[in-house]
Amino acid sequence: MDIAPWHLRTAINALEAGGLIACPTEAVWGLSCDPLNERACMRLLDIKQRPWSKGLILVAADFAQLAPFVEVPSNNALKRATATWPGPATWIFPATRHTPMWISGDHDGVAVRVTAHPLMRALSKRFGGPLVSTSANPSGRDPARSAYEVRRYFRRDLDAVIPGALGGLAKPTTIRDVATGHILRR
Predict the structure, then answer these.
(1) Global pTM value
(2) CATH code for the domain in which residue 150 is found
C-alpha cells in the first residue's frame, strides 16, 4: 500500500503544526499527533475523553526513533521485543526521565511499537520520529474501522483524515511487559 504524496504532505503538515490526524493502523483506525507537543496530546485526550493518566502508545518506523523515550532493561528484553518488530506487538518499556508525563501517564513505563503497517511507517519516517497512536474512538465506544466512522465520531475535531486500508488484524495489538514478557492486553 502506497500513500499518495499529497496525503503524506497533508498529514506531515498537520502534525508539524500541532494537529491531530486519523489514519488506518494494523487493526483499527487510529488518532495520531506529535508526542512532544503537549497541547496536541492534550487535545487528542480531550476529544477521546480519555484521562492522561492512562498514557499513550508511541508507534515508530524503527527502534531508533523510540530510543529517547525508553530505557532498555536488558539485552534479553530488547531481543524479546525486536524479535516481534516490525509487527503488531506493543511492548511496555521503562520510560526515560525525558518521556513526557502525558505519554507515560501515571506509569513508570511507556507503550511502544515498531509498526509494519506501510502507511504508519511512511508517516513516522517522513515525520522523523514516533507518533502517538491511539484507537479512533471516544472512550468506552468501539474503535472506528472506517474513515466514515472516524468522521462520525470526531466530525471537525481532526486536522486530517488520511485514507488507506487497515492492516488486517481482527483486534488491537497485544501489549506485553518487555522485562517479563507477560501479556497485559490480548
Answers:
(1) 0.95
(2) 3.90.870.10
